[in-house]
Automatic annotation (TrEMBL):
It comes from Sphingomonas japonica. This is Leucyl aminopeptidase. It comes from the Bacteria. It holds the Pfam family Peptidase_M17_N_1. Keywords: Aminopeptidase, Hydrolase, Manganese, Protease.
Amino acid sequence: MTDLSHLLQPDRGQSARMIHIVDPNGFDAWLNQQPPRHRAAATAQKLTPSGFSSAILPGDGAEDWSVVTVVANVDSLSPWCLAKLAETLPEGQYRVEGRDPGAAMFGWVTGQYRFERYRKEDRATGPRVLLSSDPVAIEETLRQGSATLRVRDMVNTPAADMGPGEIEAAAAELAKQQGAELTVTRGTELERGFPMIAIVGQAAAKGREPRLIELAWGRADQPKIAIVGKGVCFDTGGLDLKNSAGMRLMKKDMGGAAHALALAELVMTARLPVQLHLLIPAVENSIGAKAFRPGDVLATRKGLTVENTNTDAEGRLILGDALARACEEAPELLIDFATLTGAARVALGPDLPALFANDDALADALSAQGKAVSDPVWRLPLWDGYDEMLKSDIADLVNAAEGGFAGSVTAALFLRRFVAKDVAWAHFDTFAWRPAARPGRPKGGEALGLRAAWGMLKQRYPR
């Protein structure tokens, strides 16, 4: 768990620079009440009543200055309203005038994230520390911030350094930290028990062989929940080879695994009263003499047969075996994360994970929590009428429907075939990537849907 405690500290009255906040409705009144030197400074720095606009306000001495920033609503601070300040202010300690920063602490923490594993130069500035009088909120913010940074770090890491073995190592480290039991299935046992996971990854180089990673935590008398994450560490598309543009970001195709690990970390560090089962099918979809072929009929753990109509629709194959395994333990709740379809991005763009669920109450709770914490999701239908698109002439179903219609829906319907009907299930088709930077949200790997799921779990299983 990444230690972010140097960015948020309890407010014990220590010396700190003041952050004044104002919203567009109160901007003119605030400006008119300021002394002339503050009005002059605001004008010189082009302070405007628009979001993220800010200005340094001079004090009596050279070091006696404060800062003002414009937020959308001073009575309801968003996670991102102070994030730009966290990116741009000099190092030091800061306090929000007249109130606790609340939700804004999250953006303060995530706004200072940099992926620097491959950079030689040192950072030019030290940490900006925000003070809060709410120790419980500090603890929760640090927990969520650490989980978010786990996703970002894993997704940003190139495939050469984030293969199935590295995901296994991350799960093993988490299991050791939290006292969980780790099980890894590979080789002939994987071929026999999880044939779709094995066949998708069978062309990978030595050392990057496919495997199913499972982690178990919690007491046997607590409610069972399962979290599954797609761990395709690089996706060439297989023999249905992607073009260079389509392959460029495929290091992020293990983003579902990163989300699943992060959510499991949140569950365990918060000690939710649940019995957790984490499953990550980890593979590399490579090309070579051993690559699986279009037209092959695949066996599955559930006993269904799948005609492989597209080797680039491999994520749903490995998830199918993992979902079937998860349901064998009869969980009352099952959540999966996957960077599954381009169709979801066409429909919803990069910011909104597509949410599918077989339970309306579960979908409503996830949507409500996403809205509450500024981690929005958008529900798409498990439209029964499209099930016929998965029909095969020679097997029980195909993995990819022809024609391209409703691609994210048919992918979710494929997954549904491997979920027990009495298990409440939610599927996140997430992008795990931010193509352009925003305050608190740098370009690159991103946790999308993670905090919505975490909010739902906290609400459903209170400590």
